[in-house]
Description:
The complex is a heterodimer of chains A (558) and B (271). Chain A is mainly β and 558 residues long. Chain A has a domain at 333-506: Porin (Beta Barrel). Chain A contains two helices and 34 strands. Chain A has a 24-stranded antiparallel β-barrel. In chain A, strand 6 (98-110) and strand 7 form a beta hairpin. Chain A starts with 8 loop residues before the first strand and ends with a strand. Chain B has one domain: Immunoglobulins (Immunoglobulin-like, Sandwich). Helix content of chain B is 20%, strand content 36%. Chain B contains four helices and 14 strands. In chain B, the strands form four sheets. In chain B, strands 7, 10, 11, 13 and 14 form a five-stranded antiparallel β-sheet that branches. A three-stranded mixed β-sheet of chain B has the order 3-2-4. Chains A and B meet through strand 13, strand 15, strand 16, strand 17 and strand 18 of A and helix 1, strand 1, helix 2 and helix 4 of B. Strand 17 of chain A pairs antiparallel with strand 1 of chain B.
Amino acid sequence: xxxxxxxxxxxxxxRDTVYVSGSIQHDGLFxxxxxxxxxxxPRARWAKIDHxxxxxxxxxxxxxxxxxxTVRFRGLHAETRFELNQWPLLGYEAEFAGHGVxxxxxxxxxxxxHISVGNVYGQFGSGLLLNLYENRxxxxxxxxxxxxxxxxxxxxxxxxxxGGKQRRYWxxxxxxxxxxxxxHDAALGADLEVTLQQWSPRLQEADIELTFGGSYVSRYEHxxxxxxxxxxxxxxxxxxxxxxxxxxxxxxxxxxxxALVEYAYKANxxxxxxxxxxxxxxxxxxxxxYSRKGLSVLAQAKRSDNMSFRSSRKQTGLxxxxxxxxxxxxxxxxxxxxxxxxxxxxxxGEWAFQAEVCYTWPRKTKMGGRYGTxxxxxxxxxxxxxxEGSWAINTNKEGEYYTDIHVDLNKKITKVWSLNAMLMYxxxxxxxxxxxxxxxxxxxxxxxxxxxxxxxxxxxxxxxxLYTRQDQGQWVFALLELNLWHRLTLSGSWExxxxxxxxxxxxxxxxxMATYTHKAHRVSIGYGKxxxxxxxxxxxxxxxxxxxxxxxxxxxxx
Amino acid sequence: MVRRTTHSxxxxxxxxxxxxxxxxxxxxxxxxxxxAVSLPGDTTxxxxxxxxxxxxxxxxxxxxxxxxETLRQTYGENLIVVAMHPASNPFTQGAAKYDxxxxxxxxxxxxxxxxxxxxxxxxxxxxxxxGHGYLNDYSDWATLAAEAMSEHEQASLNIKATYEADxxxxxxxxxxxxxxxxxxxxxxxxxxxxxxxxxxxGSVTTEYTHRHMLRRAIGDPWGETVTASTTPAEQTxxxxxxxxxxxxxxxxxxxxxxxxxxxxxxxxxxx
Lengths: 558, 271
């Protein structure tokens, strides 16, 4: 189930404002089959019916100084989040289950920056060393319970300091210290970014922005006793309590162009994940893009090796990650195109390349027709490293991790009818990404039609087909969605595994859903049988087992 | 005045950042990475169980199996290794000819939070929860085994197994200084099963020797209730089954406490 609530109350006192905001979110499932084999959490039963749900209540109190011209202090924000995930939806890690105050923070705004105390988020550069964020779909909250200073001492200079103990599910309750106990582990970081345009009249005249940045992140963890037996003798690893990592970057922007180069280095960081290897980690990111009206071009390359940076040596899975390597593969939204999503290889490393060209023919031209036409070509290719720590690309067959080449056409045909058509070729190295399985080569076709029958009635349908001879073989998917009065959406989908491959299931999957939106309320209810698969965001994936039952959600924000 | 205060704050923060971050990296030289330690060893005679969840399609499982063998050699009779192939994990699936799964493996795997996507190899010692969960990466087994060895024996256990005319008879006796209710679990384990296995280089061999493979539990997977006290509690379990070569099999007896943690284990060959 999913639930959210919206509203706002304010008290005006002379020049200042105080108001409260918040949201409620509820996502739930009443399964209609025995889920004990796929459940990793305790069960909840209401009237002898299994039920599972994820629930969040966010509450914030804001105090704003209105006359900020004369006052250096601009406002105060207190935020908290209560989470009730005692019996969560399927597919979340076992430690995700729990309830309590998952987030607490107090932020003071000044005209020279912000100071936050409590659970703090942040990102340095592209996130190669530090990217703290919340993603409820994946069950991730990587915030640090500590403090953050974001300062702009002068225009063009930005300094961030951050430190604290990372939230790893409910570890803040471990020692009854509410996460303020830093004797076990903590992370510290600093980031400085300088934009030179402020001091160079030449750059100002040329309308070019040149930015240099650098950051340093250090993780502390007390000395664990980790043993290994080698050649018949027992040894204890001499583990570094402080693991440091540095990053430098330069970005040049102007006249529609954007060029970025970023390099990160991580010192010895033996962990469970890298089998207690003392090798250093490195990441290099190159990006070049250009955009003007009707045209955008992007080319990127990334090389990473042993760059999993966590707040705890023994942590594996989705929690406890300090960094998030940018994903260089497209995040597909169509169901079958997202059937084989790529997950970034943090430990083993990878070379990733991505290129994208998007062009829009204007309306009333030969190619654009009456309403214009947009064509997008995108290609992503990921390969392994030749060997551990090598800069060479693994050009062997097993070195191919992922390929995604697709052409996407978006066109409005008539006043009421528009379509999006996509053709895709994809390869997916199941052995590398999931741990076992073949190299899956697939072809995917998608047709997405939208009919705006009246201003208040919109009908949309999707037809998708996936062809492959590996894994589960061929799939077909169809969706019909009717939107009435911009408030009520009725949708039905059907997915079938045609098979003709070694792991074929030849199963039907279906769903029927009704969603109603009224002001800040959004409620949906439906019944569905969903196939198993991965939910991914930013190259981080969560496995979702097959599920069938009544699905409900409610959202309210105020 | 305000500007001066602000500059002082920035200066202080910059100094604090410099001090904290310059201390924030510890480089361990190549010759300093391993510190030799001597293990106290287990003098109690208590048996511990290393459960190794594995699958023939898992490329890194032979490495974990080797680690388990190294630990077994280190701790001798005090550490019993059992390989389980749970059907609910796809690493065990895909070729009926090489089906090493058994229902009981899935019972224990699911109990420990194993899912279809749990990466293999993974394992557990004595069904203990380490604060993060039950399932531990094989690089942590040596540490967990050393920790387990330091625990004192709460109940003693003896076992004897005979097989005659399709009938397996297992006699056990246990006793404890303080009376406690336990679960007595019996496992049938097969050694030296030649078959398929994916190897770390990605290739597959059909001549791999699978060791200490759990074939079934004798009786309920969670065993029968026994009361261990100063007076030996003797139990006899029987099962009718066909065993081609009894020399390849072993019986493992396990005593679990009310929290489903193993407090002692013993193994025997079949006479």
